[in-house]
Amino acid sequence: MTPAAEVGVYLVTDGRLADRHGTGVVGVVRAAVAAGVRVVQVRDKDASARELLALTGSVADAVGDRALVVVDDRLDVALAARHAGHRVAGVHLGQSDVPVGAARALLGPDAHVGLTANTPEHLAALARLPRGTVDLLGVGVVHPTSTKPDHPPALGHDGVADIVRLADGLDVPCVAIGGVTLADVAPLRGAGAAGVAVVSGICAAADPGAAAAAYVAAWTGHLPDAPSPDRGDPRLQTGRTRPGTDA
After folding, report:
1. Looking at the domain 8-220, which fold is it?
2. Which of 14, 92, 166, 195 could disulfide-link to 114, CB 3.0 to 4.6 Å?
3. Omega into 25 within 30° of 0, i.e. cis?
4. Taking 80 as the threshold, does the pLDDT of residue 227 lie above it?
């Protein structure tokens, strides 16, 4: 993946939100991918390794090659899912998770390794790693969000723009994450983000497909006439061939 790669709308799953309307995670993912979302991060902080593995396999099997599927935090689950033959591209790691260098070594050169980064120190550490270690940065939180109660201080649009500028030259696209609403999409794209990660805006929607379509439209600049506030596309362009954040 190159910094020019357009990620668009990046879905992060939340089982509790997805169950509010009886849709479930797989149903939300199916609808979102059909609406144009091309990256799905499977996240469940409360699930056991076996439970998360089962969910990841179900999500990957549901979307096939229409979306990039990554696992939040759990390198072991991503490895197990790939070993089982599911189209799981890789993992997205936080700063306290397994080091990205180890993840790259274990997953291999054609897998996807994402990393959360929200400070200049994080980017300085990334700059010391070999190019190609990390494929994508999750930058945030943009706004305070209940889906990640232990989040760092909110960056806002200007803070995201600062991190994107600092990341210039690292060959890693930045996806803004954390409390992202429809109204944030255009400003964040203007700030240089390669995409926006959405949790509740899609997972909690009564119609997740319509919600995802509205985010995709906001990203591409083609808003429907009357978008719903709880209602991403651009196809992910990758620099490698591969199988298959928080808002």
Report:
1. TIM Barrel (3.20.20)
2. 92
3. no
4. no
Q: Where are the domains of the chain?
A: 8-220
Spatial separation of the C-alpha atoms in residues 194 and 138, rounded to whole Å:
10
Beta bridge partners of 195: 8, 175
Neighbours of 177 (CB within 10 A): 34
CA distance 133 to 117: 14
Contacting residues for 87 by C-beta, under 8 A, at least 6 apart = 60, 61, 63, 64, 65, 69, 243, 244
pTM of the shown model: 0.87
Q: What is the percentage of the chain residues whose pLDDT exceeds 70?
A: 86
* Closest residue by Cα to residue 77 from 105, 110, 117, 47: 47
Question: 78 Cβ partners below 8 Å, 6+ apart?
Answer: 56, 70, 71, 88, 90, 91, 107
CA distances from residue 121 to 116, 117, 118, 127, 227 in whole angstroms, order as listed? 12, 9, 8, 10, 39
Model pLDDT for residues 14-56, shown as the tens digit of each residue? 999 999 999 999 999 999 999 999 999 999 999 999 999 999 9
Q: CB neighbours (10 Å) of residue 132?
A: 14
